[in-house]
Design goal:
DNA-binding, 5-stranded parallel beta sheet, 4-stranded antiparallel beta sheet, Rossmann fold, about 230 residues, homodimer, 11 strands, 2 domains, Arc Repressor Mutant, subunit A, elongated, alpha/beta
Chain lengths: ~230, ~230
DNA sequence: CGCTATTGTGACGTTTACGTGACATCCCCC
DNA sequence: GGGGGATGTCACGTAAACGTCACAATAGCG
């Protein structure tokens, strides 16, 4: 949930205000006063989100936005434009910047945070919402329910995500590092052995329906979910 | 017949105008400035109606409409296209892609509301007006009344909408963010924990008839309405 | 058959998420 | 303009979930 946000804004006061708020919300903030200086910052750090002021010295925000959306390297980065009231009617009209949202100055910190959250949520990697069923073990991402041969299985959030990932990638060995990446998220610092503990908890929960045998240990490599 | 409407429109001025009018008419409004950003929003919130601008940055409104109508998941959602004057010759094309109606810019709020009402009446008998009954808990959207085993249940407006949404989308787990989108509207900036408070008030109101057990907490995920 | 690297397991302290009551504010109707 | 319901937010308590460790068990290897 904490994201790296690049703020491209030439007015120091506004820039600092935004930065302060974003930091409060737990995000990592980078700042650039112009499009030019923002360029290599983007290439270097690949922020999760860019806040781009409409009016900038040098290359305007519009042109910069267009440029970003034309570059395959930066195209996927969500973009929120900051516009001042009065600029919208004429200038926004007909533009094809590909911005994901707009915030009109003056804005409240709460509004900004909400919009950021919304934009980040929308590009969230949606794992398939389809029901997975392997050997009588069924996991439904929509209802968040797991059943073994019809009998309900109780899982904690992490065990649920772990099982979901294993079931959507069966027959394949996953190292602890890979599991940490895909199940925990790549920006967390946890011991690799923690995976073992959660695997155990998962097996324990699957024991009543004998489905625990599906979760297999591959010595020296990691874990695997397999029917055989 | 309050409905949740998604407005896909890239010009903030027009977007805000439409949103204002829809809210006046009692609808819940969500907005997205592009087809790409609208996609996730649709999957998450299942709006009752989509207002789609003809001209959009990135994927055009036409292509997006076609895509929506080809997806079984979104096919049933009524669609109204917004076209600018001079694009009229394309109306036919728009209707061919599966749009249920079109509105030409500039339009009057009255016209827009009328067309929305017509489309909703024609297309969505399942969501808007029908009485919902789950395990003896009955909710009537028309009379705005809720009864548990015949006994009246007193709810505030927000709790009513919350319960209505949960009852029309049962078994499914809804994150706090999704509930904020669907029950509050995503242009309202409210803390996620507020959902908890309203869930509690809802449970409290349902307590006398033991129907509070229908509202379940799914730790780390959200809330769910279920018989089991 | 014994040694060692690797994994299983139980326990424990800490963190996080949720439930709950209180409160301040807003808004509408009287 | 004032009173009451509705709403959003905060603070606090509790219970579940988490991560880590220590030690036991196991498998693989020579």
């Amino acid at each position: 949930m904490p994201a790296t946000v690049l703020v491209v804004e030439d007015e120091p006061a506004i820039q600092e205000l935004i930065a302060f708020n974003l930091k409060q919300a737990g995000h990592i903030v980078m700042a650039a006063p112009s499009a030019e200086s923002a360029q290599h910052l983007i290439k270097e750090t690949l922020p999760d989100l860019i806040l781009l002021d409409w009016m900038l010295p040098g290359m305007s925000g519009i042109d910069f936005a267009r440029k970003l959306k034309n570059d395959s390297y930066t195209k996927a980065i969500p973009l929120i434009m900051l516009t001042a009231r009065g600029e919208e009617q004429d200038k926004v009209k007909g533009l094809e910047t590909g911005a994901d949202d707009y915030v009109t100055k003056p804005f409240s910190p709460r509004e900004l945070n909400a919009r950021i959250k919304a934009v980040l949520r929308r590009r969230a990697p949606q794992m398939t919402d389809e029901l997975v069923d392997i050997a009588g073990l069924a996991l439904d991402p929509v209802t968040h329910r797991v059943t073994g041969n019809g009998a309900p299985v109780e899982l904690g959030p992490t065990e649920f995500r772990l099982l979901h990932f294993l079931m959507t990638h069966p027959e394949r060995v996953h190292s602890r590092a890979q599991l940490l990446d895909r199940v925990w998220g790549n920006q967390v610092f946890v011991e690799e052995r923690t995976v073992d503990v959660h695997i155990r908890r998962l097996r324990q929960a699957l024991e009543p329906t004998r489905h625990n045998a599906l979760v297999q240990t591959v010595r020296g490599a990691g874990y695997r979910l397999s029917q055989r």
